[in-house]
Design goal:
By secondary structure, the protein is α+β, with helices and mostly antiparallel strands. It has a domain of 136 residues: NADH Oxidase. The protein contains 11 helices and 4 strands. A 4-stranded antiparallel β-sheet has the order 1-2-4-3, sandwiched between helices. Helix 1 packs across helix 8, helix 2 packs across helix 8 and helix 5 runs antiparallel to helix 6. The chain starts with a helix and ends in a 5-residue tail after the last helix.
């Protein structure tokens, strides 16, 4: 399938039909696709935390709201995206920002200019730079779900988290660094194709045509 075919095929899944643990080779392919999503210098990098064993899914399920917790428990794997806030990135003389863009030689002229410009931008555009980790998580979750579709797996992107609960769970398991926050979750698994809700969503994927959401400057 090409990109357009994948995008047309992919749809939200409400009910999964088994709790089989995702094989390592499938997980590796999904994470590779996730890593390829656009991200500026890695500076607003969103990380992903994976729960695929029965025990791991039971640990993180309370961090999801309502019916989303059921999706977690019946998925083959659940992916929790966490991000670095602006304050975390530029505190301590941009210590964590430097770590994220360490593939630059920060002692070179280009590296120094890149770091200086990036720190300056974070400091001078606070109203938007505060959300870059959220944007990064959105990009990465899109790549993840499209790859899942290519592998004939179903997926659901979920912003319905109990955020404080989820962050406490991750901290208790040493999976959330200071200055990080939970952003969204993605479940991947085998769709219950007999479920009426799944059938309705699959057969009636509603999207506005381009002329209703896009405008061109002329």
């Amino acid at each position: 399938m090409n990109f357009t075919e994948l995008a047309r095929k992919r749809h939200t899944t409400k009910v999964y039909k088994n709790t089989q643990e995702m094989p390592q080779d499938i997980l590796d392919q999904l994470l590779e696709a996730t890593s390829l999503a656009p991200t500026a210098l890695g500076a607003e990098q969103a990380r992903v935390i994976v729960a695929r064993t029965k025990e791991a899914k039971e640990i993180v399920a309370p961090g999801f709201m309502g019916f989303n917790a059921t999706k977690v428990l019946t998925s083959n794997a659940t992916f929790i995206f966490v991000g670095q806030t602006k304050k975390y990135l530029i505190d301590d003389e941009a210590k964590h920002l430097k770590e994220n863009i360490s593939f630059f030689d920060l002692n070179s002229e280009m590296g120094k200019n890149t770091l200086s410009g990036t720190v300056g931008w974070y400091n001078n555009d606070a109203s938007r730079s505060e959300f870059l980790d959220i944007i990064a998580a959105g990009n990465k979750s899109s790549y993840l779900t499209l790859k899942a579709t290519e592998l004939n797996l179903a997926s659901t992107i979920m912003t319905g988290l109990n955020y404080d609960t989820m962050e406490n769970i991750l901290r208790d398991h040493n999976l959330l660094a200071e200055g990080e926050r939970a952003i969204l979750g993605v479940t991947v698994g085998t769709e219950d194709e007999t479920n009426e809700i799944n059938q309705n969503i699959k057969n009636h994927k509603l999207r506005k045509p381009a002329d209703q959401f896009a405008a061109e400057i002329k």
